[in-house]
Design a protein that fits this description.
Largest sheet: 5 strands, mixed
Strand content: 5-15%
GO molecular function, one term: isomerase activity
Helix content: 40-55%
Oligomer: single chain
Keywords: Isomerase
Structural class: alpha+beta
Strand order of the largest sheet: 5-4-3-6-7
Distance between the termini: 23 Å
InterPro entries: DinB/YfiT-like, Maleyloyr_isom, MDMPI_metal-binding
Organism: Streptomyces yaanensis
Protein name: Maleylpyruvate isomerase family mycothiol-dependent enzyme
Shape: globular
Number of helices: 10
Amino acid sequence: MTRAGIAAARSSTAQLAEIIPQMDDERWDLPSACDGWRVIDVVAHLAALASEAVDPPPPDPSLPKNRERYHDLRVDERRGWSHAEVIEEWRRSTPLQLDLLEAAQEPPGADEAVEVPGLGTYPRHLLANTMAFNVFCHLRNDMLAPDGPLPFTLPEPTDGLVAPAVDFMLAGLPQMQGPELTATVRRPLVLDLTGPGATTVTILPATGPDGQLTVVPGADAAATRVHSTALDFIAWATTRKPWRDHCRITGDASTATPFLDCLNII
């Protein structure tokens, strides 16, 4: 199970909760590092996800299929809310979301496949890692300096915070972009991530015309390698930062470049 994901989600959520009382209206309205979203919109996004986890809305075929556009829609629905209303939704729904994700670690439902529209299908227990990734990434990259506008300082990221986020990203990597990303990997490619959240995996090409990429632990000794810190991986693999500023390639760069140019974890 992914109890580390629950611990990471709770920890990043607690860090956000410590910052909220230090905010004022002016800071809430500052543009975040997430394009088109103010700082309060980032919280609205987290609040919307929490509310939907607690009280899932009925299926609506008119909603955007693209996950990023879907997130924009949910944020836009809250743009007329006061800051206090957005924060109240986040405070009300987030603890319930965390409790649901913790309950999802228990059998028999823990391994049940759950489709997340636009993102792929995951075992239910891994949904805790989606929250660990989401809160950590938005808080650290979009809200707080140096990339975001808020001048608050948090403790240095630990393995316990970073590894669950990376685990979700690697689980989503073969699924989120489908054939578009699959077509960029013709030979095995190693991701060698260091520092907090360190891991080494090999990305294997699809074995058939309708197949997906496969991510397996360890390194194919003959493969081209992409070296980065795991913390930087969270930023560049979500296209928040250029991969060329944070990656070193050993081996055949032409094997890695199309994949790195295409990758966009949501």
